[in-house]
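Sanity check

After download, print the first record. It should look like this:
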Amino acid sequence: QVQLVESGGGLVQAGGSLSLSCAASGRTFSNYIMGWFRQAPGKEREFLGNINRSGGSTYYADSVKGRFTISRDNAKNTVNLQMSSLQPEDTAVYYCAGSTKSTFLLHVVTNRASYAYWGQGTQVTVSS
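Expected structure tokens:
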């Protein structure tokens, strides 16, 4: 299995940018589709986007498309989430997750159940 640790969370002003990173250890990182989710207090965990095994393809939820960018570096075993134009409603705990689903269709790998491996989360707070 793979172990995931997020970093880079913090406090940012509305309109600002923040970059999160997720470091993986254990099994071969490039075996996993990697996703990013977030969970705000009292809300369900929300899919944000994912990236295929090679890093050549990404898929985003409509809520973050154009503002968030996912990338990965298989040589460094990391996946990143670059966020811009942040708003207070983006405040949440952000999670990276790994999926072993054997598909090339990223848009079908968007629910929590598709991801077997999760990080502990990192808090992002956007002040108004």
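If your output differs, re-run the checksum step. Summary of this record's structure: The mean pLDDT is 96.
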